[in-house]
Design goal:
43% of the residues lie in helices and 16% in strands. The protein has 297 residues and is α/β, with parallel strands linked by helices. It has two domains: 34-115, 3-Layer(aba) Sandwich (Rossmann fold), CATH 3.40.50.10860; 141-275, 3-Layer(aba) Sandwich (Rossmann fold), CATH 3.40.50.720. The strands form three sheets. Strands 1-11-8-7-5-6 form a six-stranded parallel sheet. Strand 5, helix 7 and strand 6 (185-189) form a beta-alpha-beta unit. Helix 2 packs across helix 11. It binds NADPH dihydro-nicotinamide-adenine-dinucleotide phosphate. Residues 142, 165-168, 170-172, 190-192, 196, 209-212, 230-233, 273-274, 277 line the site of NADPH dihydro-nicotinamide-adenine-dinucleotide phosphate. Catalyzes the oxidation of 5,10-methylenetetrahydrofolate to 5,10-methenyltetrahydrofolate and then the hydrolysis of 5,10-methenyltetrahydrofolate to 10-formyltetrahydrofolate. Keywords: Amino-acid biosynthesis, Histidine biosynthesis, Hydrolase, Methionine biosynthesis, Multifunctional enzyme, NADP, One-carbon metabolism, Oxidoreductase, Purine biosynthesis.
Length: 297
């Protein structure tokens, strides 16, 4: 029997509809319009596409939305000045600086400069600390999206053994914390893990956030496990003729063809975790706006 396919698009659509309704309520009942500022430095094509989608989707949800497109040679102090202005802007409740930044800019001071209460990407050290301490935090959007898909698919996650492969600050670590908060027993695996296939085989929930195309093989998966593939990797087409024409496609960190024969449920790439990220960004912006305005419900 093949795995149930966990489709991200309809879940993301549902989340966006909920956010849109909440924005309309906040505007009607409190005169509050959540505002998102997205900052893009340079002209990286993938970043431009992400930023465009964030701008369009926030506007479609009824939010105030501003995109700052800065030239690739923007200086560090110019970027920091813009962040300071956005921190002080009462119309802006969420600030997202699209990463990666051009090489001459230092990411850390830029992220540190964002007001933690407006840090809708959940990257500020204060939000990372709040998450670990079990306090209300703005949490990175992709990990939150993974949790929504997991709860939709499995319901209560209590007692399940979750293995997260990847320990980045943006993805692996926050997913591990969210799974722990959901009462999973969590194993964090990474490039130095010994016998990774055996570790993966012990997982009821396997989250792959590695950045290595199709690395997780079918025989690394426990039969019936739920597999969340966060990876987005661009590779040449399998067909050599199309590959020779330079055609590429997106694949995950999991070998999907093999995994779908073994897993109980699995996210596809694309259209699995990917669509959840922007929907969760909108949700984080609403959360930030309500907290800043002191609105509890
Ligand atoms: P990073 O490169 O920051 O982290 C990769 C992690 O994987 C590291 O912890 C690294 O271990 C680990 N790793 C690398 N190679 C191996 C290996 N051979 N065996 C075991 N572990 C390994 O990547 P990100 O976390 O930022 O992203 C991970 C993937 O998720 C990427 O494909 C990215 O494109 C995708 N992504 C998708 C998003 C979405 O919206 N769906 C959003 C963000 C990311 P170590 O720490 O030891 O080096």
């Amino acid at each position: 029997m093949t795995a149930k396919i966990i489709e991200g698009l309809p879940v993301a659509e549902r989340l966006r509809a909920e956010v849109t309704a909440e924005v309309a309520r906040l505007r009607a009942e409190h005169g509050l319009q959540p505002g998102l500022a997205v900052v893009l430095v340079g002209e990286d094509p993938a970043s431009q596409a992400y930023v465009k989608s964030k701008g369009e989707q926030s506007l479609a949800a009824g939010m105030h939305s501003v995109t700052h497109r800065l030239p690739a040679d923007t200086k560090q102090d110019e970027l920091l000045r813009l962040i300071a202005d956005l921190n002080a802007d009462p119309l802006i409740h969420g600030i997202l600086v699209q990463l990666p930044l051009p090489k001459h800019l230092d990411e850390k001071p830029v992220i540190d400069a964002i007001d933690p209460d407006k840090d809708v990407d959940g990257l500020h050290v204060v939000n990372a600390g709040r998450l670990v301490a079990g306090l209300p935090a703005l949490t990175a959007c992709t990990p939150v999206g993974c949790m929504v898909l997991l709860r939709d698919t499995l319901g209560d996650l209590t007692g399940k053994h979750a293995v997260v492969v990847g320990r980045s600050r943006l993805v692996g670590k926050p997913i591990g914390q969210l799974l722990l908060a959901a009462n999973c027993t969590v194993t964090m695996a990474h490039s130095k893990t010994v016998d990774l296939p055996a570790v993966c085989r012990s997982a009821d929930i396997l989250v792959a956030a590695v950045g290595q195309p199709r690395m997780i093989r079918g025989d690394w998966i426990k039969p019936g496990a739920c597999v969340i593939d966060v990876g987005i990797n661009r590779v040449p087409f399998d067909n050599p003729e199309q590959a020779a024409l330079g055609k590429t496609k997106l694949v995950g960190d999991v070998n999907y063809k093999e995994a779908v024969q073994v897993a109980g449920s699995i996210t596809p790439v694309p259209k699995g975790v990917g669509p959840m990220t922007v929907a969760c960004l909108l949700q984080n912006t609403v959360t930030a706006a309500k907290r800043i305005a002191g609105i509890d419900s």
